[in-house]
Design brief:
With 147 residues, the chain is mostly beta strands. It is built from no helices and ten strands. Strands 4-3-2-1-10-9-8-7-6-5 form a ten-stranded antiparallel beta sheet, with no helix packed on it. A hairpin with a 2-residue loop joins strand 6 and strand 7.
């Protein structure tokens, strides 16, 4: 992927591989993601289609080495991002009407740059592993029907 001291560049369009992932909560029909990464800035745009076909869009912005604020379902979330070796670790804290929530996500890129792994090793999503594959063409449009 990179020389030993180089950091991963997550820029690209990605699609969740549902068969290879282990998700907590309801299984979506599809998750497509666009990431713009220009160190230290990272913007993650997610397009989630639930099992019933309803689409939800979310955007998160991070800055490595700094605290940022994002919104999750209308609730503010404090987020920090930092490098631990070749992994980008993103931690988020938010308070919902019911409780405080904590997420810790470890991002890593495969050696060939075609697979992005987002692993929650602890926190409220402990055990969740999302495996995303780089799209050979745009993920933003649904696959073409053959007819």
């Amino acid at each position: 992927m990179n020389p030993t001291n180089a950091r991963a560049d997550f820029t690209g369009e990605w699609e969740l591989n549902l068969e290879r992932s282990l998700l907590r909560g309801p299984t979506p029909k599809r998750i497509a993601m666009e990431i713009e990464h220009r160190e230290p800035q990272l913007v993650q745009r997610i397009r989630l289609t639930n099992a019933e076909g309803a689409e939800k869009r979310m955007t998160f912005a991070y800055e490595t080495g700094a605290e940022t604020t994002n919104s999750v379902g209308g609730a503010p979330a404090r987020t920090t991002a930092r490098w631990e070796g070749q992994e980008l670790v993103i931690e988020s804290w938010m308070t919902t009407p019911c409780r405080a929530v904590y997420f810790k996500d470890h991002w890593s890129l495969s050696d060939d740059g075609r697979t992005l792994t987002m692993a929650h090793r602890d926190g409220d999503l402990a055990g969740q592993i999302s495996i995303l594959e780089r799209c050979p063409r745009s993920c933003s449009a649904p696959p073409q029907e053959k007819g």
